[in-house]
Amino acid sequence: MAAIEPNPWFRVLPPEPMNDPPFNGAPTGPINMPPRDAAPIAYFYLLFSIDLIKEFVKQTNRKFLRFYNPRRELAVDEFLVGTKGKTSMLQYIPSKRSRFGVKFWMLVESVIG
Fold this sequence. Notes:
This is PiggyBac transposable element-derived protein domain-containing protein. It comes from Mytilus galloprovincialis (Mediterranean mussel). It holds the Pfam family DDE_Tnp_1_7. Strands 1-3-2 form a 3-stranded antiparallel sheet, with no helix packed on it. It has helices spanning 40-47, 50-67; strands at residues 74-82, 90-92, 100-109. It is an alpha+beta fold. The chain is elongated, with a radius of gyration of 29 Å.
């Protein structure tokens, strides 16, 4: 017969007591859920508050200014990102290489290129 080990590599624990409250039919889940037809930004605000977004933008701008200081020669440029997706922002510009796409505007500096 084999000897019983005093300290086996596993341990059997007793079952935990049941402390769950009885179900009373109350609704569960998020309390401040927006309605189903709400804008997507309403769901975004469930995760991120306005104060958190403001603080993030403030800290990001402060960090970027350490690495990049814009000069005086600034211009507003537009560019079209070609896409075949279905979106309400889709624009048609026949003179561009990709004629269908989403138009973006950006502030550019002419010194750097």
